[in-house]
Write a structure and sequence with these properties.
By secondary structure, this protein is an all-alpha fold. The chain has six helices and no strands. Helix content is about 70%, strand content about 0%. The model has no long low-confidence stretch (mean pLDDT about 80).
């Protein structure tokens, strides 16, 4: 779990810009928060079953190891949403928290 004021923000700021500045913190927080939200939403969409029909139809159309699968074999395979068992909520909450603190810092900056 990443906390908004963790050392990672400052280490990235120092490594990238060689100084600690509120504007640099805002920029890096925006990138990190956006990445957390992007990956959290991606995992949410994958685990919600949105792509199950697409994966099922790909299994029906294409061959596996040079042989076609029967309808029973395809039906016995687990849906794609069951394969993605990663919890997306911590990523979303961390991203929202990082972006909320970024907006507060942005309000202070301007």
């Amino acid at each position: 779990m990443v906390y908004p004021f963790s050392n990672r923000h400052f280490l990235i700021t120092i490594f990238k810009n060689h100084t600690v500045n509120l504007l640099h913190y805002i920029n890096i927080s925006f990138m990190l928060g956006g990445l957390f939200i992007f990956f959290g939403l991606t995992i949410y969409v994958l685990s919600s079953g949105f792509f199950d029909v697409t994966v099922y139809s790909f299994r029906r159309v294409f061959k596996v190891n040079g042989k076609e699968l029967s309808r029973e074999e395809v039906n016995e395979m687990r849906p794609f949403s069951e394969l993605v068992s990663f919890n997306f909520l911590p990523l979303l909450l961390n991203g929202i928290l990082i972006l909320a603190i970024m907006f507060i810092c942005l309000f202070i900056y301007y």
